[in-house]
Design goal:
Elements: H1 3-13, H2 18-25, H3 29-37, H4 44-54, E1 73-76, H5 82-106, E2 121-122, H6 128-138, H7 149-155, E3 159-163, E4 169-176, E5 180-186, H8 191-206, E6 208-209, H9 215-227, H10 230-237, H11 246-256, H12 260-269, H13 275-288, H14 306-316, H15 322-328, H16 336-340
Parallel strand pairs: 2-6, 3-5
Antiparallel strand pairs: 1-4, 4-5
């Protein structure tokens, strides 16, 4: 990626138009366009000014690694506008470049341990229950609640990141270079929704759907089955119920990290409650606005740790400087000075 292309990408990532950037720089829109097209190479003083306005490091403009997004799949509440989509893409590219760069510095071997798609074939939604349990078994997750979905995915080779985006955006998934699975999620969401989105995107990565099964419905079922195995759903709720109190769903939400609404879907999908009970509970949820905002304390969001640990390792081994570490962490202070005082 050329310096001009990086200027354009950073501008889009900052949510600025060419005209707005030109105004901030004290330049004409034509001059800004020429810098982005590569007709004019910016001098060092201009690079420093650009880095301050666009909130990227100077090193960003000279990175050797560049990332292209190939056919990402989106999970959105509403379709994204072109500008919103470009903003998401720019942030994902910038984050991934930093991720790959620290791996290159450390010579980190990329290990991917996703289950084979041959073991994830499904022709009906009910078959997804067994697929989700096989994934848990292969990853030695047992039947207990998953403490951190992000950590589990990263431990098995999936790149996971959080980005700032419109509230219409939940997550996107794609393969980089046809081999590295990547999931990016919106950082402005409660933990239960975030965890479900991650598990949903994992379903898209793994499931091999045959027949006329709806892909979104399949990923949705996989997410619920991955977060709460069928055996444990029966153990928590019982196999047959005529009624379930929302208080039960609230307690289970905080125990398993899955929303009250997802628990209601789970109970209906597994036949724990009859259709009439499900409809009555959905009416109650809608009346109270719980499908938009659930009652009580929200579940805290998760934060990816693998990339941060790689940066801290490189800093401890003196392979990078403090300023380089901060740049690789996207401007976040690496806290090494605090650590040295322990």
């Amino acid at each position: 990626m050329t310096i001009g292309e990086r200027i354009k990408s950073a501008r889009i990532g900052a949510g600025m138009s060419q005209r707005a950037l030109a105004r901030e720089m004290g330049l004409s829109a034509m001059a800004t366009s020429k810098y982005e097209s590569g007709e004019i190479v910016p001098r060092s003083g201009l690079i420093i000014q650009l880095s301050e306005i666009l909130r990227v490091s100077v090193d960003y403009f000279f990175r050797s690694i560049s990332v292209n997004l190939s056919q990402p799949q989106y999970r959105c509440r509403k379709p994204l506008k072109k500008k919103e989509e470009s903003l998401v893409h720019a942030q994902v590219r910038e984050w991934l470049e930093r991720y790959f760069e620290i791996e290159l510095i450390l010579g980190e071997e990329k290990i991917l341990t996703l289950p084979s798609k041959e073991n994830c074939r499904i022709t009906t939604l009910d078959e997804i229950e067994d697929v989700a349990q096989r994934v848990r078994d292969e990853w030695d997750l047992g039947l207990d609640p998953i403490e951190s979905v992000m950590d589990v995915l990263e431990q098995h080779g999936v790149k996971v990141g959080v980005i700032e985006a419109t509230d219409k955006f939940d997550a996107l998934t794609f393969y980089y270079d046809c081999s590295t699975p990547v999931i990016a999620v919106n950082n402005d969401m409660p933990g239960d929704r975030q965890r479900f989105n991650l598990a949903h995107e994992l379903g898209h990565l793994l499931l091999r759907i045959e027949g006329d099964v709806d892909e979104e419905a399949a990923a949705h079922r996989f997410a619920a089955a991955f977060l709460v195995p069928k055996k444990m759903a029966f153990r928590e709720l019982g196999e047959q119920r005529r009624n379930i109190s929302p208080r039960e769903f609230y307690v289970l939400k905080h125990k398993w990290g899955m929303s009250m609404s997802a628990w209601l879907h789970r109970a209906a999908d597994l036949g724990i409650i009859p259709e009439g009970t499900s409809e009555r509970l959905w009416t109650l949820f809608n009346k109270n606005g719980w499908r938009q905002k659930e009652p009580g304390d929200p579940l805290p969001p998760e934060h990816p740790t693998h990339m941060k640990l790689l940066v801290l390792r490189a800093l401890s081994e003196k392979k990078i400087s403090q300023s380089r570490a901060q740049e690789l962490l996207g401007g976040e202070q690496p806290l090494e000075r605090c650590i040295e005082s322990f």
